[in-house]
Amino acid sequence: MSVNKDLERERANCTFNVRQLTEFFDGGPQKTLERKDREKLLLSKRKDLFDGVPLSCLSHKEKYEESIRRDVILFDLVRHAVGSRNLSNYGDILFNVLRCMSSCDGSPLILHYIMFMPVFLSQADEEQQKEWFPRAWDCSIIGSYAQTELGHGTFIRGLETTATYDPDTKQFILNSPSMTSYKWWPGGLGNTANYCIVIAQLYTKGQCHGIHSFIIQVRDEETHMPLPGIKVGDIGPKMGLNAVNNGFMGFDNIRIPRRNMLMKYAQVLEDGTYVKSPNSKLNYGAMIFVRVVIVYDSVNYLIRAATVATRFSAVRRQCQLDAKEPECQILDYVTQQHKIFISIAASYAMKLTANKLYDTYNHINEQLGGGNLDRLPELHALACCLKAVATWDTTRYVESCRLACGGHGYMLSSNMPQTHAFVSASCTYEGDNTVLLLQTARFLVKTWQNVHGSLTPTVAYMREASAKDFASKWENTVEGVISSFQAVSTRKIAFCVEIMTKRVKNGMPFAEAWNMTSVQLVAAAEIHCRVIIITTFYEDIKTAAPTLPSPIREVLYQLVDLYAAYWAIDILQDLLKFTSMSQRDAESLQAWYEELLRKIRPNAVGLVDAFDVIDEFLQSSLGAYDGRVYERLMEEALKSPLNKEPVNRSFHMYLKPFMQGKL
C-alpha cells in the first residue's frame, strides 16, 4: 500500500539508521530479534486478535465477552512461550504482553500476571509456591488481587476485611463487616478469576496483627459459580479500561485452611501463635513490583501517543508560514513541536529509568533474600516517586499529543482518547500519586536528618549538594541542570524539615505539622524524582555513547538536552529561588530550548519510527506507518454499526412520527 509522500520525505531526510536506534531502545540487537519473534507469533493470529468490530462500538457486556475471546488466544500464546516455567524470562514476557495489551481496552487476565503470580513469588513460602504457582503459571487457575475496598484505598492499615483464626478447626474465617469493607476494583474479579489473593486484617487469640495475604477460592473450578458466602460481580462501566472486568467482593463467614495464609515472612502456627515478620515492609514486595511494571506500562502508552501525534503532524497540512507557499506541515510550527517533542524525549528517558528501576528492584530483592534489609526503604521510596511522576507525566504528555492532533484526536479511532483515559487511571491505582510522593518525602526527611551519615545511592547527592556553593554562573548544559536540580531538591527538603521543626517547637503536634507542610513535601519529592530521571537519562546515554554511531549519539544527546531544558523551564521559579540563576539566564535557557526543537525537527519521524510499534498494536487511524490518515478515518467510520443500513429503525419508530406531528 502506498505511503504518504510527506512521511516518505521525512524518512528520507532522517540523519540516522532507524533500525540501529530501535536496537538501542530495546536493549540490544538480540532483544529486538526476540521482540520481533514474539510479535510474529501474535501476528499469526492477526485476524482473531485485531480485526472485527471496534471495541468502542460494543456494549459493556459485549466488550468484556470479546476481550475474553481475544485474551484466551493471546495468553494461550504466552502460556506456550513461557512453558518451561523459566522465571529468568518472566520480565521480558510480561513487558511484551503489556506492549501488546496497551492497544486494547485493558485485559481481564492481566492482573493474573502482574499481581497474582508475583505475590506468590514474594509472599508465599517454598511449600506454598510448589502447591499454587505451577497452576497459576499454566493458567489452570486464574487469579486476581483484592486489596482496595469501597471505603479504603491508599490507607492500607485501615482495611476492614477480617481474617480470624479458629484453632479448633485450624481455619481462617473471612468476613466483610460493613458495606465499605467490600473489595472494590480488583481486575478480572468481576467475572473472570476463580481464585484471589485477599488482603485482610489478621486476628488470632483475640489480637489484631495488621494486614496479611490470603488465597481464597472465589468460584467453582467446573461451573464457575461463586462459592457460598461470596458475593462477587463487576463494578460497571468506567472512563476507560472497561475490558479489565474490575470487580467487587464481600465475604460472609468464609472458611479457608490455615495454610492459605501466605507465610514466607509472618506465620500463624496451628495453636494460633503469631510469628512476626522480620520487617513489616516485606509484606509490600508485590506492590513495589507492580509499581515497577506501571512505569514500564507508562512508557508503552507514551510511545504510542508520541508516534501518533508526530506522524499525524507530518501528514497534516494547515495554514501558511509564507503566503506565497502552499499550506505547510503542522510539524513545522514551533508550538506543535513544543507539544510533541517532549513526549519523544520523555519516552527515551522513562524507558532507561524503568530499566534502572527494574535492575534496582532485582538487585535489592536479592539482598532481601539474603536477609539484608538496608536498602528496602530506598527501594520503596524510589518505586513510589517514579510511579507517581511517570504516570503524572505520561498523562500530561498524552493529552498534549491528543490536542496536537486537533479535532481528529477526539475520534476514538485515533486511539488517543482511550490512551488518555488509561494513563489517567494509572495516577490513582496501586497508590494515589500524592500519597506515594509523601511516602518518598518521609524517606527524604530521614535522609536529610542523617545527611552526614551513610547515604544510599539514589540520595547520595544530597550530602554534596548541602555543602556546595551555588553562586557559580548558570550554564545551559545537562550537567548544569542536574546540579541545579540537586540543589533545589536538597534545599526544598531542608526547608520542609526546618518549618516542621519550628511548628513542633511552637507546640503543634508532628502529624499536624506534617500535614501543614505536605504541599511542599510533595514538591520536594517530585524534584528528587526529576534528579533521578534526568541523571539516569544522561548517564546512560553517556555510557552508551562510545558504542553508538555518531548520528545516533548526536540525536540522543539532543533529546537529553531537550528533556533537561524543558523541565528546567517548568521549575523556573524554584531555580530562581534556590540557585544563582538570573533573569538573563532564564532567557538564555528558553533560547536553548527553542534551538533544540529546531535541531530535533528533521529527525522527529525517525525517532518515533525507532519505537517500532506495529500498526496492530498502535490501533490508530492517525498514526499508522503509511500515513494514510484520511483514508483510514473513513474506513474506521464505515465500521460503525450505524452505517450497516441506510435507514435506522428509529426513524420509522420515533423520528418520522415526531416530524409529522403524529406522536
Show the helix and strand layout.
Layout: H1 5-13, H2 18-26, H3 29-43, H4 46-50, H5 60-81, H6 90-101, H7 110-123, H8 126-137, E1 143-146, E2 162-166, E3 171-175, E4 183-184, E5 195-204, E6 207-217, E7 230-234, E8 247-251, E9 254-257, E10 267-268, E11 274-275, H9 285-315, H10 334-369, H11 376-404, H12 416-426, H13 433-449, H14 461-467, H15 478-505, H16 510-516, H17 518-544, H18 550-570, H19 572-578, H20 583-600, H21 604-609, H22 615-618, H23 629-638, H24 649-659
Parallel strand pairs: 1-5, 2-5
Antiparallel strand pairs: 2-3, 3-9, 4-8, 5-6, 7-8, 10-11
Helix pairs in contact: 2-3, 7-8, 7-9, 9-10, 9-11, 9-12, 10-11, 10-17, 10-18, 10-20, 11-12, 11-13, 11-17, 13-15, 13-17, 14-15, 15-16, 15-17, 15-18, 17-18, 18-20
Strand % is 5-15%
- SS-based class: alpha+beta
Instruction: Identify the CATH architecture of the largest domain.
Output: Up-down Bundle
Outline type: globular
CATH names the topology of the largest domain as Butyryl-CoA Dehydrogenase, subunit A, domain 3
Largest sheet: 6 strands, mixed
CATH class of the largest domain: Mainly Alpha
Cα distance, first to last residue? 51 Å
- In CATH, the homologous superfamily of the largest domain goes by the name Butyryl-CoA Dehydrogenase, subunit A, domain 3
**Measured on Cα atoms, how large is the radius of gyration?**
27 Å
The oligomeric status of these chains comes to: single chain
Poorly predicted runs are none
